[in-house]
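Input record (one chain):
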Amino acid sequence: MALIAYDKADVAAFEATRHLGNDALGAWREAITRYLDPQPGMRLLDLGCGTGSWSQAFRAWWPATDVLAVEPSAAMRERAIVSPVFAGDAVDIPADDASIDAVWLSTVIHHVPDLPAAAREIRRVLKPGAPILIRSAFPGRHEGITLCRFWPEAITALNDTYPTVATIEAVFAASGFTTAGLESVAQISAPSLREAATGLRREAHTLLQLISDDAYARGAERLHAAARTTTGPLIDVLDLLVLH
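The corresponding structure, as predicted from the sequence alone:
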């Protein structure tokens, strides 16, 4: 099973707090296009698309491409902001062999219970040499993640439950993939720490769901205390791992 089932409560929290603004999206667009040159007619797979915010962005950025949005959670599909969104997951992708020009997975890879099977299925649908772009937090690379500043227990949850870069590279190498790049991308996650604290929804964050209630309460207190004096935008750093 995935780490989080994403029922209606989880999805509502995700939808309310996890959609990125234009500033954050712009940083990711720059990073993505260092590895991908979208051309008319290309087919991009947004795998585990959630409520579809990345699919929406891709369609706005590259209107001549075909974006295939796929999501396993029925609750996510019901609240999607794009259409259509197809049922499917990393081991059962509704696409023909060698029909996809790029696969995008945003904060999804830790929810995949069988990485070797996923690697084989992604290999099946991708055209030869096409990239997989994985946006994620990875163990040992948490320094720029706000949640880990205020909830140190989230670091333990990250290390215990998320696959490392090395693990992903090794698993996907068995299906013929090699690493094309790994870079950290800084994004503006909120206009301020105060706004982030005010809008915080535990259900929207996998790492916060994996820690105890007491640990969550202590971290929330630290966050709200810091928010009273901290100014400026909230910057988070996640990684982009690219395989082909």
